[in-house]
Amino acid sequence: MSNQKIRRIGVLTGGGDAPGLNPAIRAVVYRAADEGIEVAGIYDGWEGLLDGYAERTWALDVQTVRTWDRDGGTNLGSSRTNPFKHGSGPSRRDRSGEVLRNIEHLGLDGLVAIGGEDTLGVARKLADAGAPVVGIPKTIDKDLSATDYTLGFDTSVRTVAEIVERSRTPAGSHHWVQVVEVMGRHAGHLAFWSGLAGGAYLILIPEHPFDFERVKALLDDRLSVYPSDRRYPRYAVIVVAEGAVAKGGKEITVDGDKDEFGHTRLGGIGGWLAEKIRTETVHDARSVALGHPQRGGPPSPVDRHMGWLFGNAAVEAILRRAWGKMVSARGVAPACDISLVSMSDAVAKLNLVDVDRYYDTERYAPRRHVLD
Ligand code: F6P
Known about the structure:
Blueprint: E1 8-13, H1 21-34, E2 38-42, E3 57-60, H2 62-65, H3 96-105, E4 110-115, H4 117-128, E5 133-137, H5 153-174, E6 177-182, H6 189-198, E7 202-204, H7 212-223, E8 236-241, E9 253-258, E10 264-266, H8 269-280, E11 285-289, H9 301-319, E12 325-332, E13 335-342, H10 343-348, H11 355-358, E14 359-360, E15 365-366
Parallel strand pairs: 1-2, 1-4, 4-5, 6-8, 6-11, 7-8
Antiparallel strand pairs: 2-3, 9-10, 12-13, 14-15
Bound molecules: 6-O-phosphono-beta-D-fructofuranose.
């Protein structure tokens, strides 16, 4: 372990933006200032460390970031750049060497990478190649392993839950089925917990392929038993995760394009389902895909708390030269323990909804058995 003092560190945010990133950057800067460490903000994720970009950085001091706890998104900008597989088609190439060199040229004794499986996957590979990198978990999808919390999740749950709840009045007034399509990629956490909080009747998650005949039967149970008795509901809200699949079907994507991490953009299952309900049942249906605004807006108190804890811990990880480690939470603030885990463990496999524990596979809704 080198005894050389840590004088200057970098911080970057990669992948989809999320509320909680700016509070985490702010905490990194505050804690670094206490240690007499300068912080360089790297623009636009890993792109900001490629040749042609790396000469522009943002010197972040306490006065600059003082109010960033209030800000959604990321003031440093983000990208889905993968330096190991940069570009597309025949021009795709490995530019990770540039990143390694630029970390040195910028005089960074440490680098905090804030991101999800893609950003931290790159961070892990760079750490394996000798770069002084630590990670902070972020994603509204909450699909990283080895941590109970990823920045952005709580705010997104609140935003989506509010829309699910708001969907109940138009659907109730007009007697239709409202399908709400929610992000989360291959994980159903956001759909499940926001659907529960917003009072959705059915929640369809990627972890359990749904049977359309069952959806139909459940809708009939709710809507067709006492159609003229006003005490009974004449609407239903279905939350469907963008990665949910009908039995025997496959994921619906926006187009066939893949990003530098090999991901296609998911989307369209909500429209598909509403159309099927309209044409194959007696019920009317509407659909809305919430899209990117569900990642937007100011961070919730929990995202500010977790951003604070994660940001401080990341600087401590750098002081310990814990390269290749990610800060991790067991529990969520105010009852949580922060520790360091290996980034490899965080990205080794996706953290998915525990169906046996939480999901009623007959009702397509939260389980009603909690203690067993
Ligand atoms: O990972 C966050 C996320 O919002 C996913 O839920 C979603 O599938 C994806 O990003 C959308 O990607 P993009 O922001 O590139 O449209």
